[in-house]
Amino acid sequence: xxxxxxxxxxxxxxxxxxxxxxxxxxxxxxxxxxxxxxxxxxxxxxxxxxxxxxxxxxxxxxxxxxxxxxxxxxxxxxxxxxxxxxxxxxxxxxxxxxxxxxxxxxxxxxxxxxxxxxxxxxxxxxxxxxxxxxxxxxxxxxxxxxxxxxxxxxxxxxxxxxxxxxxxxxxxxxxxxxxxxxxxxxxxxxxxxxxxxxxxxxxxxxxxxxxxxxxxxxxxxxxxxxxxxxxxxxxxxxxxxxxxxxxxxxxxxxxxxxxxxxxxxxxxxxxxxxxxxxxxxxxxxxxxxxxxxxxxxxxxxxxxxxxxxxxxxxxxxxxxxxxxxxxxxxxxxxxxxxxxxxxxxxxxxxxxxxxxxxxxxxxxxxxxxxxxxxxxxxxxxxxxxxxxxxxxxxxxxxxxxxxxxxxxxxxxxxxxxxxxxxxxxxxxx
Length: 429
Ligand SMILES: *Cc1c(COP(=O)(O)O)cnc(C)c1O
Fold this sequence. Notes:
Radius of gyration: 21 Å
Helix content: 25-40%
Structural class: alpha/beta
CATH architecture of the largest domain: 3-Layer(aba) Sandwich
Number of strands: 14
Bound molecules: pyridoxal-5'-phosphate
C-alpha cells in the first residue's frame, strides 16, 4: 500500500483490532500487509487516500448495485436529512418502503425493518422458533447469515478464509442446536430431518450461495428443500440479503419461482446505509411483539436516512429495471475471464448467477463448501494483488463474490478482462 494508507493503518491498528471494523477488510487472507484506505467512491470507481483509482467489484459487499453516489441519491438523502436524523417513532416513508417490499418480493405479506442483515437473520430464526415451538435450525455449510451466535457454524466468508468455522465465545449449548449440511445435498438434508425432524424450526439458506464464493443452487435443489420443509412442518427461510433486488426485483424467489416462509433482506434495500429487513406470511409475522409473544425491537430500526436511501434505490430498480443490462455485462465479464483461463491453460473455474460471479482457483466444478475449499488461496492472493496493481478491486478473499454494478461501462469491462488476463498470467510465474 502507499504512504498515506500505510500511516493510517499503523494508527488504526493501535485503536481498532487489526485496524478494521469487519475482518475481511484487513486484506489478510490475500497476504497484503494492510488495506488501502478509501477517500471516496464515484460511480464505478473507488479512490484511496493516496490518489489511486480502482474499478470497484466489491461495491460495499453488495449494496451498491447502482455504483457509488448514483445521481439522485444525494438529493433523496439531503431531503431526509432536512427533516432530522432519527425519531424512534413511526414515519410515512417506512410504510412506503414496507409497501414496496411487500409488492415486489413475492412471498412477503408483512415485513419489519432492522439495521443489518445479521439482525434480520437472527430475528427470522427467533420468529421461526416462536412460531413452530421448536428449537433446532438447519443451515448449509459455507452459507453466511451474519454473525449471530446460531449461525457461526461452518459459516463461509471470514470463517472459511481464516479457517475458524466455529467462533470462540459461542456456547456449545447454542451451536449444538444448529445442524449444518452440505449445500446442494438434499440427501443429507433428508437424513437430518429423518434424525431430528420433529425438533427443526427452520431451514435457512442462501438461495444462491455467495459467501463461499458464488455457488449456484443445483437444478431442483431449492424446490426439494421447499418440499422437505413442508413435509416436516419446518419453515423455510431464504436469506436474500445479497440476492434480494440483485437477481431480480423479487430476488431469488422470483428468479427461481420458489416461495419461502420467511425472507431476510439487507444490503441493496438500504442503498449503502445500514439496514436489514425480515418478512413473510402475515400469520407468522403477527407472532411478533406487540401483537404476539416473539420479542424484537430496535432503536434505529426504520432509520429515516436508511429508509430514504433504500426507497431511492428500490424505486430506481423497480421503475427502470437494469437486470437484463447487468446480465449482459456480467456475461461479458464471464466470457472474457473464461477465454483468458482457456488461453493460459489455467486450472480455474468460474461460477456466475446474474451479476454475481466468482473465479475459483481450482479445476472445479465448485458446487459446495468442500469443493470451494479446494481452491488455491495463495494463487488467489497473487491474483488479487495483480488486479489491484492494475486498478481493479475484487474482494480480498477467494470465498467472496464479484458484484457487477450498473455504473460499469463496456469499456471498463474490457479493461477488467485485460487486467484479468495479465494478472492470471503473472500467477503462472
Ligand atoms: C452480508 C450478509 C448478511 C449479514 O448482513 P450484515 O448487514 O453484514 O449484518 C447475512 N446474510 C447474507 C447472505 C449476507 O451476504
